[in-house]
Amino acid sequence: MKEKRIATAILTAFTIMATPFISETHAMSVDELLDTMRDAYEQSHRDIEDYTIVTDMYTAYHKKHIVDGRPAYKTRTETSGLEDMGGAGGSATVSRSDLFDPEIYDQIRASGSYEGMETVDGTRTHVLSVPSINLPEEDIDMDVQTMQNVRLFIEPDKWVPRRITFDVDAEIEEGQIRTVSPEILMGDYRNVEGLWVPYSTTMLMEVGDDILSPEKREEARRQLAQLEQQMEQMPEQQRQMMEQMMAGQLDQLRDMLEGERMEWTINVREVKVNSGLPDSMFE
User: 1, 12, 112, 133: which sits with the fewest CB atoms below 10 Å from its CB?
Assistant: First the structure.
């Protein structure tokens, strides 16, 4: 399902970790905000060569590489479960979409504007607005290449994103392009060996008939029913493994198919740091 692949691509591209720095709650320039974030990022990641985040929807592997003398991370994302609503198959993509990759960082610095502070889930955040961000050309497997009208809501105590909103042009059907406006909420941050990891990430997006037609909804319902029937016929141990792997996804999918708004929550199950990921995983 294209909506889910778009969500996964953006979530993995913008799951950015930082470390506590100086608590700043006053108005800041774009340069001051970005430099403070980057300093915190580099400090927290100084001794981290790779890290892996296992969620109930995908596993993201991150490997440090140096660009123009500064650290950034390549990401390999492996999805599982309901990738195309046709079964338990998955897929893998490799990208270098890191906020502090110079190709992205320089775009934000050049065209970003500071909009003051807003409250997200009871937390005051700095708001940074960017007209558009072009993801690196190497990310040919990404469903999204350009993000428009981007707004980043940054928590100043940890220097981590709490909310991201943007517009993207997505191919809903072959040759049919629609603008969708996802919203990503990140919370339950936990410190894992210096990394601030959002253990809960929620994706919100309107899915009216122009995005998911009645015919597509009905087709998805049939595929979902077939999947549930296949699971019922599995051996007990295999069925329990599938249910554990897709915990919560089926209920969220049912709700999406019956409504006009997609709400998908991803929960982190495990974080591994410096496990020795090989470079070959990111080629």
Answer: 1
Report the alpha-carbon distance of residue 204 to residue 146 in Å, rounded.
Answer: 19
Backbone phi, psi, residue 274, to 5° = 55, 55
Place of tokens 């470390």: 19
* Cα 47 from chain centre: 24
DSSP codes of every residue in 147-207: EEEEEEEEETTTTEEEEEEEEEEEEEETTEEEEE--EEEEEEEEEETTEEEEEEEEEEEE-
- Helix-helix angle 236-245:214-232, to 10 degrees: 140
pLDDT, tens digit, 9 for 90 and up, residues 159-188: 889 999 999 887 666 667 778 888 999 999
- Separation of CA 132 from chain center: 17
15 pLDDT tier (thresholds 50, 70, 90): very low
Domains identified in the chain and CATH numbers: 2-282 (2.50.20)
